[in-house]
Design goal:
By secondary structure, the chain is mainly α. Helix content is about 55%, strand content about 5%. The chain is built from six helices and three strands, in the order αβααββααα. The chain has a three-stranded antiparallel sheet, with no helix packed on it. Helix 2 packs antiparallel against helix 3. It is elongated, with a radius of gyration of 22 Å.
């Protein structure tokens, strides 16, 4: 892992220290599960009122839950995220990265997963050649890697590759 001078000085994010990528996007530093939870609780409470034929109150509760979610979302700061490894950068630097682009994410995530997969398989093959380490660990590692290009980043994060 190597940090660039700009990242160390908290001036800009120009290179990812985990994957050495230079492609980033900016998003709100918001936990989507929290937002979904707020709206789901509002929907459940609203459903109770809707069941008892109190439609106006039910719609009001839904609107209120959505408003709370929106207020929380607006107050949060932005975070810069690496397209390849999803490493998040917080700090006082100026955000220059564009918004999320699905096409760019698809291309760069797959590229990074293939790279990581090749590196894991290379390490596993080196371990297999080592006389100190016997086959079960290496076979488990190779089996877990499999066709890495088809797996999601969350799968790779489960193997301790999370930045």
């Amino acid at each position: 892992m190597s940090l660039s001078a700009a990242v160390l000085a908290d001036e800009a994010v120009d290179r990812c220290p985990v994957c050495s990528g230079a492609d980033f996007y900016v998003r709100k530093d918001f936990n989507p599960k929290l937002g979904l939870t707020i709206v789901a609780i509002g929907a459940l409470i609203s459903a109770v009122f809707y069941w008892f034929k109190r439609d106006l109150i039910a719609y009001g509760i839904l609107a209120f839950a959505t408003l709370i979610d929106l207020v929380i979302y607006r107050r949060l700061k932005e975070v810069t995220v690496c397209y390849r490894c999803h490493c998040e950068f917080r700090g006082a630097y100026k955000r220059t990265a564009p918004a999320f682009d699905l096409h760019t994410a698809d291309e760069l995530e797959q590229e990074y997963e293939r790279k990581i997969g090749r590196e894991l398989i290379k390490i596993a093959l080196q371990l297999r050649a080592s006389p100190q380490i016997r086959g079960t660990f290496v076979l488990q590692m190779l089996n877990s890697c499999g066709d890495v290009g088809s797996k999601t980043p969350e799968h790779l994060h489960g193997h301790g590759l999370r930045p």
